[in-house]
Design a protein that fits this description.
The chain is built from 50 helices and six strands. The strands form three sheets. It has a two-stranded antiparallel sheet with strand order 1-2. It has a two-stranded antiparallel ribbon with strand order 3-4. Helix 3 runs parallel beside helix 7 and helix 28 runs antiparallel to helix 29.
Length: 1068
């Protein structure tokens, strides 16, 4: 986000608060227990809801103690006395102090649930009766809802399902396998798809008022034939309901569940909220608006997709820098060429030549030296960074006025404050924060000086620095030599005429040492007054803008920056710097273009109205809910709306931060616990991942998503071209995909990192993490080959998907396209008018082969058609070759501890939506046949693993076991496969799919397999402890050797199995 420039002292205060150490202790266990156990909830209710004598003269609006709680006034509107208000405030304070991130808290909740009266009933004979237990379980949850108004409504369906379903399942497990009499229900999918969900609310909110949801808006007048062709706009209700998902029939286990912020907001009562979440985050699922009944309206291209597509400039720059490096090596080696980057790196290492890392460092220094360097290739590479990355992004920031926006708004705020002070004759003004209650006082003189400084800064913000280099401080190097770092900073400040005492300089150095390029997400408290947000951001210095778009606080000279680079105090790798700059600033650009400000707040719409051309933002969503709360008739309705409002706004903000990559960042990324968890995740990726062979199911996905006939024909034509000619068709498909920032995994390694849940931003400031990151990247590219496989598959998918988009667009423009294919195009962002433009552009510049359509978008002149085609291609490639999206996973999986526990599960979460749910929405032969192919590839992988790794005779494995293993490896079951595996492990293979179909393992699960449910890191730690126990107790045997092997990097790569088998034998 764009952040307003602040002084070092102010930033130090912010840093100290953000990096306050959070301690987990047993009191969190008690809090969690009290939040879940019925008896504890009831006791709290009785203690907190004592009888307060009513005060007839009491008015909550006049109660001074409610000033800090104006944004939560709805919770106090029914208070009858000051004593009751005080009781509610104390409850709010206790809730605010609850450490929800503590593992002790969650353990307490689990314990509280298991000691509930109804749960204890489960262990009696009465508990085996599903009807009795389910009724007791549901009644208990209803009681909890009544006692605690802040309890989530989403718990109710889960409780009912578990209460009635769990005894039934346990009974079936006890009796053995299900008999042949069990029948399968047939679901009428089409009826479910076409059914419009019912809503309690009869009116919709739009443009500041409630409107009739069924009344069609007037169609603009027209004359003659044009009037007959005029499209009728959908009714407001159709627009509102159209944002919901087509039914997958998974119910609460699918799109109707509360699993992701996208699912939750899409069910919200706010039209603006539904539209906003769709505009921010990508979704692979079909929406009702995409279907025939809703006019095949297209899904908007999300900011998430736009962000991926815009990275093409950064990727091209990285490629060209490497090309310049290869040209330099060729020149100094008297024309000797190297075919691969790894080959030239090995050669240079043994021949004392400039490495690629040194080349990248020189490129960074060349930018600071006005793009001048004695080596022509380095100078050329520096110019590439300006042309492809820093120049275009910086110019767009300048054109949108993003640097000026926060300064102009703050000037406007302070001038209004000063005018009010003059009118009232006030000498000072005291502000109280609604976040933490702190007070800050300003005099007229201080405000006048602040305005003058801001106006000066506003003038300087117009200057576009062409040789700008974003600064990322290297903590490990600074901590190793702080005196030298402090000396460089001090000398530069003195040269600028800026003096600073030793105490302030020490604080500044400590701040810079702990500097991190991304700003941690903090929740915003929304009220019906825009001024409240302005006060928090500018008076109390809680800005939320990207560091790279604000003026550098120190304004270090180029000479000082070069000294910092030479002493390794700042990151000098141009690849890392470009990537960070892009990820910091581009979201600001996209959100400003959409909402008028980089935070998605909607200030532009408030200031300029409809003339701003901005979409409704967070403030408009809050306003919509505030009006509904005001109009609600009962306290229960108001509380429900308040709860939904807070959840929706939190989910929308989370979506914005997910796009930025800042959601779930730790309070202190440099803490040893944070670094240990990140390092462990890298280590797990090196030792546990098998590589591309586990992803061979990608092949079947092309047929599943593009159709049986089209998939086979286009792919066979591509393969024939690769084998018989020069592979021009594959190369053209790859080029097309890369022009929209896909099939570039050999440059970015993005899919492999998403699967492994490891980031690439942290290693820049830590040498150890940097080394682990490079090792993991080397593994993905050259050892387990995951990145190479992904790039190949996305290129192959691009050929078929691009052909499908072109062919279907042509058919739609001619009126011959089937409805299901219209729905697919609409879900990818292409409506009928856009399809016509794509068809026209293809007719002018494209090429038709026997089965494939080559778009050749580089020649297209219709930018709208090109962007629509590129957006659809980008989105559908990531659906076909399953690549996790930012909205595919529950929010908790983005937090540090949780991501360590559920590492490697993001693929399963993504596959749940992109394979299972999308297929169950479509319910066609393509999904059925694709599922069969997926099972076939899963069986192939399973057979290879069984024979090569475990020396098993695959023919002797029972068919039921083969099918279950194939299903597991196909990815078709998504996260539910992992859930089933966990249930089987916890119950010693007594409950689960395998026992249900008679394929139960004849032995219980090991302690290690149970520990592994806590995550791969726990499994590794258990391995180490097991080895230490065996060695210390003199019990070293072949099991110990196997555990030692599991700790060696690359040991799980399938084609290296023979090598590590020999190593394991040597360890015995």
């Amino acid at each position: 986000m764009i952040q307003y420039p602040i002084t070092p002292n102010e930033e130090q205060k912010i840093f100290e608060k953000a990096n306050k150490t959070v301690e987990y202790n047993l009191t969190d266990f008690g809090t969690g227990f009290a939040d879940e156990n019925l008896l504890a909830i009831g006791a709290n209710y009785l203690m907190e809801n004592q009888d307060f004598p009513p005060d007839e003269n009491y008015n909550p609006k006049e109660d001074q103690q409610l000033i800090p709680y104006a944004d939560s006034y709805d919770m106090f509107m029914f208070s009858k006395s000051q004593a009751e208000t005080t009781s509610i405030i104390n409850k709010l304070k206790n809730q605010a102090e609850t450490n929800y991130a503590s593992p002790w808290y969650h353990l307490g909740r689990v314990t509280g649930a298991f000691t509930d009266p109804s749960t204890l009933l489960l262990f009696t004979k009465l508990g085996s009766t599903a009807k009795l237990f389910g009724t007791a379980f549901a009644a208990e949850e209803i009681a909890k809802q009544q006692f605690d108004a802040t309890r989530e409504d989403s718990y109710v369906p889960w409780t009912v399902a578990g209460g009635y379903g769990l005894p039934y399942i346990l009974n079936k497990m006890a009796k053995g396998n299900v008999g042949a009499a069990t029948q399968q229900k047939i679901i009428e999918g089409d009826k479910a798809i076409n059914t419009i969900p019912k809503r309690i609310d009869q009116k919709l909110y739009e443009d500041g008022k409630f409107i009739n949801p069924t009344e069609k808006p007037p169609t603009p007048g027209s004359v003659g034939a044009a009037a007959n062709e005029e499209k009728i706009r959908p009714t407001p209700k159709q627009e509102f309901e159209g944002e919901r998902f087509v039914k997958s029939n998974l119910g609460v286990f699918g799109e109707d569940g509360p699993w992701t912020n996208v699912f939750r907001v899409t069910k919200a009562i706010s039209k603006n909220a539904r539209t906003m979440i769709a505009d921010i985050l990508d979704t692979p699922l079909l929406k009702l608006k995409n279907t025939k009944e809703y006019g095949f309206r297209s899904t908007n291209r999300s900011i998430e997709t736009e962000l991926r597509m815009r990275e093409v400039g950064n990727i091209e720059a990285m490629k060209e820098i490497k090309e310049q490096y290869m040209l330099m090596i060729k020149r100094v080696q008297d024309g000797k060429e190297f075919k691969t980057e790894i080959g030239v790196n090995l050669h240079n290492r043994f021949n004392d030549k400039m490495s690629l890392a040194e080349f990248a460092r020189e490129v960074t220094k060349t930018r600071l030296n006005g793009m001048q360097h004695d080596i022509p290739e380095i100078a050329a590479a520096a110019r590439v960074t300006q042309q492809k990355v820093y120049g275009p992004i910086g110019q767009e920031v300048q054109d949108l006025g993003i640097r000026k926006l926060p300064i102009e708004r703050e000037i406007k705020l302070w001038k209004s404050v000063l005018d009010q002070m003059v009118k009232k004759g006030e000498g000072t003004k005291t502000f109280r924060s609604k976040v933490d209650g702190t007070q800050t006082t300003y005099s007229r003189t201080e405000i006048t000086n602040k305005i003058a400084k801001l106006e000066d800064r506003l003038k300087r913000s117009n200057n576009l620095v062409k040789d700008y280099v974003n600064i990322i401080y290297n903590k490990s190097s600074i901590d190793a030599n702080k005196p030298l770092f402090k000396q460089i900073i001090k000398e530069d400040l003195i040269k600028q005429g800026r003096y600073i005492n030793d105490k302030k300089l020490t604080k500044l150095v400590d701040d810079l040492s702990n500097h991190f390029p991304f700003i941690r997400f903090e929740k915003t408290k929304y009220t019906d007054d825009v001024k409240d947000l302005l006060l928090e951001r500018y008076v109390f210095n809680r800005p939320r803008y990207a560091r790279s778009t604000r003026a550098r606080e120190l304004n270090l000279s180029k000479e000082a920056q070069l000294k910092l680079i030479d002493n390794d105090f700042v990151v000098s790798d141009i690849f890392s710097l470009m990537k960070t700059y892009y990820r910091q600033v581009t979201p600001d650009i996209l959100f400003t273009r959409k909402y008028g400000d980089p935070n998605g707040l909607g200030y532009k719409l408030i200031d300029d109205g409809a003339d701003s051309m901005a979409s409704p933002g967070l403030m408009q969503v809050a306003e919509e809910y505030n009006l509904r709360i005001f109009k609600a008739n009962t306290k229960q309705q108001k509380l429900k709306l308040v709860k939904e409002k807070n959840q929706v706004l939190e989910d929308l903000e989370a979506g914005i931060e997910l796009v930025r990559g800042t959601y779930g960042l730790p309070a202190n990324p440099h803490a040893w616990t944070s670094r240990a968890m990140r390092t462990m995740k890298h280590y797990n990726a090196l030792t546990m991942l098998t590589g591309f062979f586990a992803a061979t199911a990608d092949v079947a996905r092309i047929v599943m998503t593009s159709g049986i006939e089209r998939g086979f024909k286009t792919q066979f034509e591509m393969l024939s071209d690769m084998l018989g000619k020069n592979g021009s068709l594959f190369k053209a498909g790859k080029k097309e995909a890369q022009s929209f920032a896909e099939a570039v995994d050999m440059v970015t390694g993005q899919r492999a990192m998403l699967f492994s849940d490891i980031g690439d931003m942290f290693g820049m400031t830590s040498k150890i993490e940097g080394m682990m990151g490079k090792a993991a990247n080397f593994n993905f590219m050259y050892v387990n080959l995951m990145s190479r496989w992904t790039e190949f598959m996305k290129s192959a998918a691009s050929v078929t998907i691009g052909s499908r988009i072109i062919e279907d667009s042509i058919k739609w423009s001619k009126g011959t396209l089937a409805d299901k294919n219209k729905t697919k195009l609409a879900a990818s962002g292409i409506d009928e008018d856009t399809a016509r433009r794509i068809a026209n552009s293809y007719e002018k510049h494209g090429t038709k082969l026997k089965y494939n359509y080559m778009a050749n978008t580089a020649e297209w002149t219709d930018d709208a058609a090109k962007n629509a085609f590129g957006g659809a291609l980008n989105k559908d490639i990531n659906i076909t070759v399953v690549t996790p999206g930012k909205g595919d996973t529950p929010l908790f999986m983005n937090y540090e501890l949780a991501s360590t526990i559920v590492q490697f599960k993001k693929f399963a979460m993504a596959a749940t939506q992109r394979m299972l749910m999308r297929g169950m929405q479509e319910k066609d032969l393509d999904f059925l046949f694709g599922s069969i192919l997926l099972m076939g590839t899963g069986m192939l992988v399973d057979s290879v693993y069984s024979t090569m790794r475990f020396d098993k005779d695959y023919s002797k494995i029972p068919l039921s076991v083969k099918l279950l293993n194939a299903f597991d490896r196909s990815g078709l079951g998504g996260i539910y496969v992992d859930v089933n595996r966990a249930v089987e492990a916890l119950t010693d293979n007594r409950i689960g799919i395998r026992p249900l179909v008679g394929a139960r393992r004849p032995y219980g699960s090991s302690i290690k397999s149970k520990v592994g449910l806590i995550g791969p890191s726990a499994s590794q730690i258990y391995n180490i402890m097991d080895i230490m126990y065996d060695v210390g107790g003199g019990k070293y045997n072949h099991y110990t050797a196997r555990n030692v092997r599991r700790l060696i990097p690359f040991q799980n790569v399938w084609y290296l199995d023979w090598l590590f088998d020999d190593i394991e034998k040597g360890l015995r």
